[in-house]
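Usage

Read records sequentially. Each one opens with the input sequence:
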Amino acid sequence: MATTSDAELILKLYDLRREAVCRKAREFFIGWTPASAEEVKMVASNFTRQDNAYIRQATTYWEMAFSIVNLGAIHDELFAKNCGEGIIFTLKCQHLKQAFGEAWTRSMPEGETFIANNATAKAKAETIKKRYGW
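and closes with the structure output:
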């Protein structure tokens, strides 16, 4: 059973997502549709690029959130009902790896673990895969 503490943590995570740079990072990553392995490698391997920083911030934010849940600090079912974007980011990392092989090395193992272990997250993931054609 979820508690008010779980709800407070979910709301805190939501509040952190509204921070200006985090919002830009999330917006960039969700909209980024690279056309080639060369583009992926150029962005993903150059830590001085702003788009690289955005990718790192957006994905590590969700990895942090998933790790908190995976360790039991937030009720998993409550989180599953509120983490659609994190599931999208996890699946997008998988898609980029499949589409661009060695050019894309980033993964989201905490997100993958969460999806594998939660029925609600699994169902959301299947819906998202269909929507995006992944």
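Summary fields computed downstream for this record:
- Residues 4-132 form one domain.
- The mean pLDDT is 95.
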